[in-house]
């Protein structure tokens, strides 16, 4: 299952008891985030690990969908809809900084050392707290893969996602607000750069032959 990790001010901003209470009698919870993310790069449902800033991962959530801000604002006009998807105390929190909304269907306590999470792009451990978000290999998947590294198939998928995101960014940079090359994760950018190096080497080799 696809997975990401992102940071949140769990002590000073987000009251997780409100989130648990809401999901106890509603089907979904809308969680606003300030980072750019290309939803077309993921399969749903997906996992998201919430890193408590200054500490470690404390929660694991199931994300059914990612809604861009512009779509969120359209449906947000309906007061009945608001009550179904978010605790009222959250309604005005962080809206100016919102870029996307995670549609969450489940939250579980999940205390885990953030630095033991491995990046999806290369299987290496995280070295810094996630700025925005980082695509990772879920610990559950690592338990099924003793090497701790993505399979060849997973690495190929990472390259394909990077190339597709780069193409989408180029085509849509002047069309869609808040969307550009910054939407690529470090792993996706690295995959794009590696692909470019391979293509250049192939072209140089052809030139030597001719």
Task: Explain what this protein looks like in three dimensions.
The protein is of the alpha+beta class and 210 residues long. The protein has two domains: 3-143, Roll (Archaeosine Trna-guanine Transglycosylase, Chain: A, domain 4), CATH 2.30.130; 152-209, no CATH class. 35% of the residues lie in helices and 24% in strands. It has a seven-stranded mixed beta sheet. A hairpin with a 4-residue loop joins strand 3 (46-52) and strand 4 (57-68). Helix 5 (152-172) packs across helix 6 (186-209). The longest helix has 24 residues, at 186-209.
Could you list some keywords that capture this structure?
7-stranded mixed β-sheet, alpha+beta, Archaeosine Trna-guanine Transglycosylase, Chain: A, domain 4, 6 helices, 2 domains, 210 residues, 7 strands
Query: What is the CATH C level class of the largest domain, in words?
Result: Mainly Beta
> Poorly predicted ranges (pLDDT <50, ≥5 residues)?
172-184
Could you tell me the CATH topology label of the largest domain: Archaeosine Trna-guanine Transglycosylase, Chain: A, domain 4
**What is the tally of beta strands?**
7
Report the biggest beta sheet as strand number plus sense, adding barrel if it closes.
7 strands, mixed
Proportion of residues in extended strands: 15-25%
Q: Calculate Rg over CA atoms.
A: 19 Å
Proper CATH architecture of the largest domain: Roll
For the termini, the CA-CA separation is 46 Å
Chain-averaged pLDDT: 80
Number of domains: 2
As laid out across the biggest beta sheet, the strand order is 2-5-4-3-1-7-6
Order of helices and strands: EHEEEHHEEEHHH
Structural class: alpha+beta
- Helix amount, in percent? 25-40%
